Model the fold of this input.
Amino acid sequence: MLGKKKDGSEFEYKKVFYHHIAVPEDQLRCLDLCEYFQSSFTLNGMEFNYFIKRNAESKFEFVIQNPHKVEIRKRGEHGGTTEDFEEEVTYKGANFHFAFLIPN
Done:
């Protein structure tokens, strides 16, 4: 879908899909050092895999693979990434709200 700016130039709207991922503390505590678990979800026909890896005594790495190179933003953030999303989490668990911006 195209829109027009005040100066008359055109731009393309991007469709936004929202997704929530929650990993409870007890699930994180089940992982030993150097272990991980994997899951996936599908948005608009595109599959995304995500991992939780235990990399230290009480630190975990949360990764969403982004093979489609769509923009991934965390809730409340204006800029995102078109690469794999990575963030460190602790025993408090992973509770993320994401926006996936997909061009039409």
The two ends are 7 Å apart (CA to CA). Residues 16-103 form one domain.
